Structure formats: C-alpha cells, structure tokens
Fold:
Amino acid sequence: MTESHDTRTRLGCALDGALERTLRRPQTPATLRARVSAARARPAETDLAAVRARLEGERRQQLEALEADYLRVRRSTLGTLIGVAFAAGAAAAIAMPWLRAHLGDYTPAALTWGGAALGLGMVFFHPARALLRRWADLG
Structure:
C-alpha cells in the first residue's frame, strides 16, 4: 500500500509542478487579503426577517418603477394615437375635394386601399429599417 501511495504522491507532485510551469497565477490587488479578512470578520446576515424585509422592499421599488414606466408608455402611445388620428382626419378632410374631383366615385375605395397600404408599409418596413440600422452599426 505504501508503494501505491508513494506513486500517487509522486504523480501528484509531478502534476502540480507541470501546472505551475504551464499556468501563471492571476494578478491580484495588494489589498485582497485585507478585504477578505474584513469580509470574514463582518457578521453574516443571519436575521432572516431583516433580509426578507430588505429584499421585499427592493422588489417593491422595482415593481413601482416598472409600473411607472408602463404608465408612461401607455400615455405616450395614447397621445401618439390621438395625434395620428387627428392628422389623418384633417388630411382626409383637406384632400377629399381634390380626390373627388380626380377620382370621382372611386375616392372611398382609393382612400381605403391607400390607408391599408400605408398601414402595411409601416408594419413591414419599420422592422426592416431597424434591421438595416443594426447591420450598418455592425459594419
């Protein structure tokens, strides 16, 4: 048994020596030992109620921030929707006489198809434009 133990010890020493020659020790800050000692000397948070209260407070703050952002986005979206609807109505009211003069009875169909084409263009070309911007930023 001592022979196999002696062989394992020699093999372990040889492996340790090879690792020391191959791998370099990472650079550590000069104050690392002092900081580790200070961290070990600090009492651990063993009061689970205090830890739970702190974590619940942090979670509550994060949820409040998330809800505030959500409300801001909702208001912004609603404002944009109202503005676009007003602008579209005003543009249609201004353009209607001209369109009736040039298109005649086809004006309602032309407006419908034009609105559908504009909506589809916004849906399909906006993500494509964002994708092209990302590709341009990569290059």
